[in-house]
Amino acid sequence: MIWVVGVEGQLGHELKCLLTSESLERESVFTAVHECDITKIDTIRAVVKKHPAIKTIVNCAAYTAVEKAGEESQRAFAVNSEGPGNLAKVAAEFDLTLFHISTDYIFSGKHFTPYKEEDDASPLSAYGASKWQGELAVRAFASRSVVIRTSWLYSSYGHNFVKIILEKAKKSADANANVNNGNLRVVYDQIGSPTFAGDLAAAILEISKRELQGHAIYNYTNEGITSWYDFAKAIVEIEGIECEITPILSSEYPSKVERPMYSVLNKSKIKQEIGIKIPHWRESLKRCLCQIQKRS
Ligand SMILES: NC(=O)c1ccc[n+]([C@@H]2O[C@H](COP(=O)([O-])OP(=O)(O)OC[C@H]3O[C@@H](n4cnc5c(N)ncnc54)[C@H](OP(=O)(O)O)[C@@H]3O)[C@@H](O)[C@H]2O)c1
């Protein structure tokens, strides 16, 4: 039995969709924050005791407000560092495997070659630091763990870049009016790889079928490399929205947080060891946009 923690987030939703689909129908348990708060170890233990068939925990719970993490660092570290540590302790206590999701933000983004799993972490922000501490806690306390690092996550659920651009572009096109002085402005000097949460969910389930020992780290994003600007252009082009998008520098975008300029993750390890075929980000974006249309 697989337990998805943080089911109301983007990735949690996608995992639930797959796990409850007719083709899979794997025995599973799903909890939202009001059913299990990972900062409280007793609530984690209670779920495991209630469902003794649980063999695998997938931690999709996180504090993901990158901009606010500096001001709310206590909360960010409680959820992103202590929380995964609590899950790892309970996983070790009950001999369970823990899957934990981490981020490109653990890197400084100053390398300009795709980051490998073994590269040194050097987070620039409180969010990145809290996620890095979370990884360390998982490896320190769990007896079996898989950390999957991903980047630029989006889905048809929740709040994300794809949905924000769609909304702003539609408003701009409908009113033929101003959005930020005439059009959308999107940074072009941050380079990375978008990841459709549905693809990441499928990859997690694929890895979870394996007999796992010790601790493993894998990078997973969609194939291809792009800038936020080109990603935004692709969203409006695929949707056929007439909307001008202006490329701007990161320094022109108001932000309290330093973000990695280059956060491409090298995916050779997951492809070779697990044999996963990874879709290109444009193909996955099209699938997600179809889902968004169907759900609206
Ligand atoms: N989003 C990205 O671009 C991105 C990029 C790279 C890596 N990641 C990582 O990928 C993973 C999944 O991200 P996501 O975008 O699916 O996140 P998300 O949509 O923000 O979902 C996170 C979920 O965790 C819940 N949560 C917060 N505090 C909790 C607690 N103490 N106990 C239990 N649940 C709690 C949240 O509930 P509330 O909403 O009620 O707080 C939310 O439902 C995270 O580990 C994230 O760090 C994300």
Helices and strands, with pairings:
Layout: E1 2-5, H1 10-19, E2 28-31, H2 41-50, E3 56-59, H3 73-93, E4 97-103, H4 126-141, E5 145-150, E6 153-154, H5 161-175, E7 184-187, E8 191-192, E9 195-196, H6 197-208, E10 215-219, E11 226-227, H7 228-239, E12 245-248, H8 268-274, H9 281-295
Parallel strand pairs: 1-2, 1-3, 3-4, 4-5, 5-10, 6-9, 7-12
Antiparallel strand pairs: 8-11
The site of NADP nicotinamide-adenine-dinucleotide phosphate (NAP) has 24 residues, from helix 1, helix 3 and strand 4.
In short:
The protein contains nine helices and twelve strands. It is an alpha/beta fold. The chain has a six-stranded parallel β-sheet, sandwiched between helices. It has a two-stranded parallel sheet with strand order 6-9. The protein has a two-stranded parallel ribbon with strand order 7-12.
Describe the structure.
The chain is built from nine helices and twelve strands. The chain has a domain at 2-157 and 195-223 and 263-279: 3-Layer(aba) Sandwich (Rossmann fold). It is α/β, with parallel strands linked by helices. Helix 1 packs across helix 6, helix 2 packs parallel to helix 3 (73-93) and helix 7 (228-239) crosses helix 9. It has a six-stranded parallel β-sheet with strand order 2-1-3-4-5-10, with helices on both faces. Helix 4 links the parallel strand 4 (97-103) and strand 5. The chain is globular and about 55 Å long. NADP nicotinamide-adenine-dinucleotide phosphate is lined by residues 6, 8-11, 33, 37-39, 60-64, 79, 83, 101, 103, 131, 150-153, 158.
